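Input chain follows. Return structure tokens only.
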Amino acid sequence: MLLATFGSGKIEAGCDEAGRGPLAGPVVAAAAIMPTDYQNELLNDSKKLKKKDRDQLEQIIKRDAIAWAVAEVSHEEIDEINILNASFLAMHRAIDQLKTTPELLLIDGNRFKKYQDLPHQCVVKGDGKYMSIAAASILAKTHRDAIMEAAAQKYPGYGWESNAGYPTKKHRDAIRELGVTPLHRKSFRLLPEQMELF
């Protein structure tokens, strides 16, 4: 089972994002503060869970968390400031919305842009180590998947309902055949040969 806390004795918020790699749609981040004695054997890195388990855990996390928040950075903003900065901005926006102020941020990954005066700890593969980061990873992923499923209705043919905008063969074939949509990230290499698309 994942660790309930980092052991800091402080109010810890786990932070993670979803959607750095896709060719379309926003990047989404979440922040979650879980009880210090929290236990849930199902809770894990969102990428290791089936969709139905993620959807079930999303509701459990929202019920059990001391505080949680989800935030987006649009594809237009990604094109302006790049995906790394957009990921940090999404996390900052999520932290902004927390109803309880954290005293330590646990960040999934190895890099982060400092948030105000709050100390932070980067944890590589943290979503497979700490409850709060895993909770954030699930909230970010389920939120983003729902956005892309809705976008798939508006822009059919790209397979976003199953690939969430990631560069699968189906998605890239659709870009070749159908062109780009308003939701595509123009700063990304949409096709390996990168034809003139715009």
